[in-house]
Amino acid sequence: MSGVMTWLSRLESTTNKHRLTAGKGARTVNARAVLDEVLRTHRQEALSHDAPSLLSQAIAQLLEGDWRAQPKREASWQTYWRGLRLPSAFVYEGAVAPVKTTPDIAWHPWLAERVTGPITPQVKERLLQLNKYLFRQTELGKPLFPGTLGHRERSLLLFGDEKALDSMPPNGWKHVSLTLADMGATRRAPPLPYTSSGRRDLPAIIVENSDVYYRLCQLNRDQPRWSLVIYGAGNKVSGQAECVSQLLKAEQVAQLLYFGDLDVAGLKIAHQLRRKLLDDYGISLQLDEWLYDELIRNRLVTPEGNANNERFDIESRCDWMPRFVVRAMKTLMAAHLRLPQEGVANR
Q1: For residue 259, what are the CA distances in angstroms to 77, 126, 287, 347?
Q2: More exposed terminus of the chain, fewer Cβ within 10 Å: N or C?
Q3: DSSP of 13-82, one letter per residue?
Q4: pLDDT tens-digit profile of 334-346?
Q5: Are the beta carbons of 103 and 20 closer than 8 angstroms?
């Protein structure tokens, strides 16, 4: 899209917005208010030396369509911005669409073909930021998304916020056919510490706490039970589902087990990780029955503190867990106790 057409699309969308905001049947729009908003929204591009000339041409093309100037003769216009002459108002002479309630957005062509339906205000805000970036890259003659960057690196360049793409779904926002790959970005999950036994035929296990991680690594060296022992870093583990998925794929391991504290907080972490892995990556997480059996047999209980105060429906969300684990959990809750995972160290 040429520079003139870019400014024209901005003028058209802004004049239409002002007309529709003014109410039903309104046709006259203050030209200075329109130009002020366009220059404010695109202030970086407005600093260009050729911006007044491009805007002047865009205004001329705007007035060849559904709009006319007031006053009509350009000789009566006033000089307003960097030598740019401007009428006092734009008057709409086109047909008024009876159903239309909001103006169209002048999307960059690359983005226009990806917006397929109505979008939420939050997504719209992100897309408008992306739209501005795309027009700027096009006007400068630069590639839209040079190279491949981590999603936070790309997010900072596009939105001025490195976390803006953290919550973007893998398949894009609703009614927006857009992925991280389309923007030359890849999601790089936080590093995940693990130790491999080299036995791909064995299941992997992920644990919450560091002491238990080292304990299981030692046990696995003496008698391999797991292909990988993965450190999940407490309740952060549910946010590492993507990295867990990538690790299992790279190591060609098919089965994943979990071991954590036997309290409501610990089972909630297991449930959240399982749901995330299953929904997004098709991986079915199971509890390590041998370790939970050892933990229950050792009976090294502690007061529950806040660990059993989590809002979590044991009946409906633990139906995938072994029954002996759920029974033990209910007994502990009734006695206001818990079993920390470190209790397996004695056996």
Answers
A1: 76, 39, 6, 16
A2: C
A3: HHHHHHHHHT-TT--EEEHHHHHHHHHHHTHHHHTSTTHHHHHHHHHHHHTTTTEEEESSSGGGPEEEET
A4: 999 999 998 887 6
A5: yes
Its pTM stands at 0.52
265 neighbors 307 (Cβ within 8 angstroms): yes
CA 56/CA 7 separation, integer angstroms = 9
Residue 143: which of 183, 176, 172 has the closest Cα? 183
User: Which tens digit of pLDDT belongs to each residue from 171-180?
Assistant: 888 889 999 9
Amino acid 97 reads A
Helices marked H in the chain — which ranges? 3-21, 31-41, 43-46, 51-62, 109-112, 121-139, 151-159, 210-222, 241-251, 264-281, 289-298, 314-317, 323-334
Q: How far apart, in whole angstroms, are the C-alpha atoms of residue 159 and residue 176?
A: 17
Give pLDDT, residue 331: 94
Q: Is 316 exposed, middle or buried (0-12, 13-18, 19+ CB in 10 A)?
A: exposed
* Cβ 286 vs Cβ 271: under 8 Å: no
The tokens 């003769």 sit on which residue?
A: 73
Distance CA 138, CA 4 (A): 13
What tokens appear for 137 in the block? 């890259």
- Per-residue pLDDT tens for 241-280? 888 888 898 899 989 999 999 999 899 999 988 988 888 8
Element housing 115 (H / E): none
Both tokens assigned to 177: 């056919």
- Max CA distance (Å), the chain: 95
Going from the C-alpha of 300 to that of each of 66, 176, 217, the distances in angstroms are: 80, 52, 22
- Per-residue pLDDT band at 26 (split at 50, 70, 90): confident
Pairing relationship of beta strands 89-92 and 84-86 according to DSSP bridges: unpaired
